[in-house]
Amino acid sequence: MDFEYSDEQQMLADSLRRYIDEQYTFEQRRKSAVATGGFDRGIWNALAEMGVLGLNVPVAFGGFAQGAESQLIVQRELGRGLVAEPVIPCAVMPAAVLDAYGSEAQKDTWLPRVATGESTLALAYLEPASRYDPRNVRCTATRLDDGYMLDGRKSLVWHGACADGWLVTARAGDTVALFLVPRDARGVASKDYASMDGQRGADLHFSNVKLPASALVGTVTSGLDALEHGLDHGIAAQCAQASGAMERLIEITRDYLNTRRQFGQPLAAFQALQHRLADMLVQKECALSMAYVAAQALGEPDACKRRRMVSGAKVTVAKAARHVGQQAVQLHGGMGITDELSVGDYFKYLTMMDVLLGDTDYHMERYCAAMID
């Protein structure tokens, strides 16, 4: 993988950083989170115009067909600005699933609208007792003459309430299949709520939801493969976004230590604090390196090797995120836990990074299982 930005990638990164610095201030972010639940249509449209939402969508469907390297660059900048809009759950992961496993009709219907920001999708695969395991599915899809009938519950659907449709896993006989369920399907109920870091989750309840046969994504036996494909893309994007958030948080902490004075000199003059800031920088660099590993894994044809690379990256980045977040709060002293500063927002985001898309325990088990296979 080439670590140097191309001219086009540098321009994209610069335009995103400029947009975030000038139009996505922390005051704007917090106001948007309260007023719109983290989904501001104006910001979403601006991201679409800059090519963020259609970055990995094929050109034939209105996207830009960029690779994992460009996605890493974009997510790193979004992480620096702690952009709350659901780019990963509602654009990156659904687009990856439909591009690889969707029918031509599904691609024609959804991918152009995802790329332009007109419509959003979300993955609904977790259940109250699933413990991150996508194979643990109790939601059922009963075969009908003209389609399927969906029954069951999904929980913790990342930004599920703002989605125009969901990619839902359901047990179809002895296999797990994936279905595209539109929001207006009869028999669907949703409950929206806020998470600790200001993002949104939703619980979905499906009661005798009738779906046409065309709602099936891929084949009846490819549901888990399709879901894993989308989750791996999401984790790679998440690792890049967390690396960007750590990078910006270290800059904020450095500036604070240079400004805050104690005993007649700035805090940055104390060697013990310099060492702690250096440790944060080392952890950030490790996380960024593993973000590149996760991005590279998306093109790996060996499924076991890809799982090892992605899960290894997730565990390493989550550990670094906890360290950087906690150190930043401590180095800010009592101010670090107040709403007056943005440090707390970064700390909450970096803390939640561990549990989103599978926590450390789950990915350690996944890594070990891939080693055995």
Written overview of the protein:
The chain is of the alpha+beta class. It has three domains: 114 residues, Acyl-CoA dehydrogenase/oxidase, N-terminal domain (Butyryl-Coa Dehydrogenase, subunit A, domain 1, Orthogonal Bundle); 102 residues, Beta Barrel (Butyryl-CoA Dehydrogenase, subunit A, domain 2), CATH 2.40.110; 149 residues, Up-down Bundle (Butyryl-CoA Dehydrogenase, subunit A, domain 3). 52% of the residues lie in helices and 16% in strands. The strands form three sheets. It has a four-stranded mixed β-sheet with strand order 1-4-5-8, with helices on one face. It starts with 6 loop residues before the first helix and ends with a helix. The mean pLDDT is 93.
Summarize this, please?
Residues 122-209 form the Acyl-CoA oxidase/dehydrogenase middle domain. This protein has 373 residues and is α+β, with helices and mostly antiparallel strands.
The CATH architecture designation of the largest domain is: Up-down Bundle
**Any idea how many domains?**
3
Strand order of the largest sheet: 1-4-5-8
The global form is globular
Q: Could you name the ranges where pLDDT drops below 50 across 5 or more consecutive residues?
A: none
Based on secondary structure, the structural category is alpha+beta
Count of DSSP-assigned helices: 11
Helix content: 40-55%
As an assembly, this protein is single chain
CATH topology of the largest domain: Butyryl-CoA Dehydrogenase, subunit A, domain 3
Keywords: FAD, Flavoprotein, Oxidoreductase
Organism: Caballeronia temeraria
GO molecular function: acyl-CoA dehydrogenase activity; flavin adenine dinucleotide binding
Domain Acyl-CoA dehydrogenase/oxidase N-terminal: 6-118
